[in-house]
Amino acid sequence: FSFKQKEGTAAVPPPFENMRCSQSKSRGKLLAVTFLAVLVIAHYKLMKTIQTQFRSKYTLLMFTAVVGTLPLFFVRWAAKLERRMAASRKQRNENSEAEFLPPESELGDKIDEHSTEQNIGTEHRSEDSRHRCCCWLIPPEVLNRTRPSILLRQAVYIGVMNSLGFFASVAAITNTPLWISMALFKVDCAFNLALSVLFLGEKCSVLKVSGSLMSLAGAAVLSVSAYLTRNSGGQENTLFGDVASLSYALILSFLMVGWKFFLKDFSWPLLLTLNGMASCVQVVLMLPVLAWAYGSNTEGAHWSSPGAVIGWCLLNGFVSLLLAIWWSFCIGFTSPTYVAVAGVAVVPLTTLLDYLTDNIHLHWLDGVATAVILSGFFLTKYGYDLSESKNQQVETLLF
After folding, report:
1. pLDDT for 361-378, tens place per residue?
2. For an engineered disulfide with 338, which of 120, 154, 203, 334 has Cβ 3.0 to 4.6 Å away?
3. What pTM does this model have?
4. pLDDT digits (tens, 9 = 90+) for 278-314
């Protein structure tokens, strides 16, 4: 297939180009959430091992927060790599469009581009001099795009929500049977969809709502199966535990929508900076909690090997760091609702992994729940793919 172009006009892609772009982006989203699922399962098994052998939840969170500050040391490297990739893309675009542009227009564009680069360079130099006092904390590559006060507020928001989510999940699991808390946690699918429509302007469709509700129903069926086959029977349900479970789902939804809003002008330096600064906030918040835990012998008194605890917590910290970076990237690349529904699809996989490694009992409802959850995920995925293809068709008609 080939097409000709009139001289002096801009290049127009063939009618199948948007379709190919949409299919490629859809596959990219699926691969992104698949790798995210692998990281979630690895993190789940690692945390379960640490909790079973050492019972060190506060130390675990502190090491996770400390290791989470490492992205701040790689922001400048990410900014350099991003600039090189942008320059390479720009050069390729100029080479591909040069044959369609008349010489006068090309010369005018170069003159305008040169003046724009001068203005941008002057603006960046003024920004660097204005925020030079903050460079010891915030990398200058990010200061040129976002004001320090806004960046600090975003980091504080993420750090506080991460800490609140941790304490809410601990309160839910300790005051509610796991099969109930697991079902209530997955209400974040509905919360994410509602918050995305309210704050992000996301278009709501029948497919997205149906897929989210199907995933939520599958999580509820899986929880019932867990009660029938894997409930120990020694833990009673309390209203406080139910409220804590729903609070965790709501906190997680606000956190995901916040990430999507902060990354609307996506860049890897910004993502790494927010993750690192949010971890610094978590370290500050966890210091008094950790001091209380050690002072009251709530944690650390029964450790037979503190070195093993530190080693396992460090390993979990690096896995958590990779998971946090990729999780925030998936939210910025796709949608909070898309990632939340994909998170529900991880639950049957963790159940199957527990069956293979821990010999837990399975029920026929597990199979039904898995089919419903996966159907809901692919229905949601199809809804997002359909809306994106419609948007690209509108852009093609407009331009």
Report:
1. 777 888 888 888 888 888
2. 334
3. 0.78
4. 999 999 999 998 899 888 888 877 788 888 888 998 9
CA pair distance 266, 334, nearest whole angstrom: 12
CA 218 to CA 186: how far, in whole Å?
10
Per the document, the length of the chain is 399
CA dist 340 and 363 (Å) reads: 25
Give the model confidence (pLDDT) of 155-209 as tens digits. 999 999 999 988 888 788 777 766 677 777 888 888 888 898 899 888 888 888 8
Cα 141 to Cα 41: distance, rounded to the nearest angstrom = 34
Q: How large is the angle between the packed helices 364-398 and 17-53, nearest 10 degrees?
A: 140
Q: Residue 331, class by beta-carbon neighbours within 10 Å (0-12 exposed, 13-18 middle, 19+ buried)? A: buried
Using DSSP, state whether 1 is helix, strand or coil.
coil
What percent of the chain has a predicted confidence (pLDDT) above 90?
A: 18
Distance between CA atoms of residues 144 and 363, nearest Å: 56
In the Cβ-directed half-sphere of 143, how many Cα atoms lie within 13 Å? 20
Residue 353: enclosing H or E segment and its boundaries? helix 336-358
251 contacts: CB under 8 Å, gap ≥ 6 = 161, 164, 165, 168
Query: Is the dihedral angle over the CA atoms 356, 361, 366, 367 positive or is it negative?
Result: positive
Nearest to 225, CA basis, from 182, 275, 268: 182
**Residues near 78 by Cβ (< 8 Å), separated by ≥ 6?**
141, 268, 269, 272
CA atoms within 13 A on the CB side of 21: 13
Q: How far apart (Å, rounded) are the C-alpha atoms in residues 195 and 285?
A: 27
How many DSSP H helices and E strands does the chain contain? 14, 0
Give ∠ CA 266-268-274 in degrees, rounded to 5.
Answer: 85
Residue 378 in tokens: 């692919």
